[in-house]
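Subject: design request, 72 residues
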């Protein structure tokens, strides 16, 4: 398989990181993102924020798979 893993890390409160995980940033990482199956897993607030950005790239809802979990 032709698999790539992108680790995206950074604090959004720092100016240079403000575009992390925006629709534009996601498209730059995965140019054909709208044709992909997307799996999101994390705390609810993080997943909700990223889900909106993924939808804004044109990924159909049936191709977005979500798992939310609470941090203890």
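Subject: RE: design request

Done. Sequence follows.
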């Amino acid at each position: 398989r032709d698999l790539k893993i992108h680790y995206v890390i950074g604090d959004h409160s720092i100016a240079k990181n403000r575009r992390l995980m925006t629709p534009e940033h996601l498209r730059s990482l995965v140019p054909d993102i709208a044709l992909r199956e997307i799996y999101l897993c994390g705390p609810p607030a993080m997943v909700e924020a990223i889900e909106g950005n993924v939808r804004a790239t044109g990924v159909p809802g049936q191709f977005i798979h979500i798992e939310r979990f609470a941090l203890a």
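The radius of gyration is 13 Å.
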